[in-house]
Amino acid sequence: MRDNEEYKKKLREMLTPKRFEHSIGTAQTAARLAELNGEDRDRAYLAGLLHDAGKNFSHERMLEMCEEYGIELDEISRTSTGLIHAPLGAEIVRREFNIDDEEILESIRRHTVGGENMTVFEKIIYISDMTEPGRSFDGVEKIREAAFKNLDEGMLMGFDMTIIHSVKKRRCQHPATIYARNELIKKMAGQV
Q1: Nearest C-alpha neighbor of 176 from the set 91, 118, 127, 125
Q2: pTM value?
Q3: What is the pLDDT of residues 25-67, one digit of tens each?
């Protein structure tokens, strides 16, 4: 693996300063959560750092790049740059950062909507993106606190907040988030 400074330099050129700072905060949060949850700190830092590599493109350019890279999008994802950037970012990280670690790539693909059978590593990247220190939405402190005590509890709170936000904004909710939430509820109730 190359030095993180090389990755940071390349990423800084790709992102706005605000998005770059968010990526640093996500990386730092991911590293701390990895330590707490028995995952590799350096790999979590790298995944957190690069998770938004596909973020700063227009909607049209994202769709073009997905076509070029052979990324298939479902109908809900196609309508949202916020959802497209995750699978696109994973492919950019593979191609432009030469990272072939499938767990890192999958955590980047799933960091916006989650999904069933998420690994601890994937959960760490998902919740780190949501709760890094630069985030300041209503309720983030409670989610952040929960995630550092119990990763699954933090994830459930994060899924709940995401779904409630979508309902209030009258937006579609990606089914992967619903499936991930349902699976987590069953797991926490001892049904899985």
Answers
A1: 118
A2: 0.95
A3: 999 999 999 999 999 999 999 999 999 999 999 999 999 999 9
Those residues with Cβ within 8 angstroms of residue 61's Cβ, 6 or more apart along the chain or in another chain? none
DSSP string, the chain: ---HHHHHHHHHHHS-HHHHHHHHHHHHHHHHHHHHTTS-HHHHHHHHHHTTTT-SS-HHHHHHHHHHHT----HHHHT-HHHHHHHHHHHHHHHHS----HHHHHHHHTTTT--TT--HHHHHHHHHHHHSTT---TTHHHHHHHHHH-HHHHHHHHHHHHHHHHHHTT----HHHHHHHHHHHHHHTT--
- What value does the mean pLDDT take over residues 113-127? 97
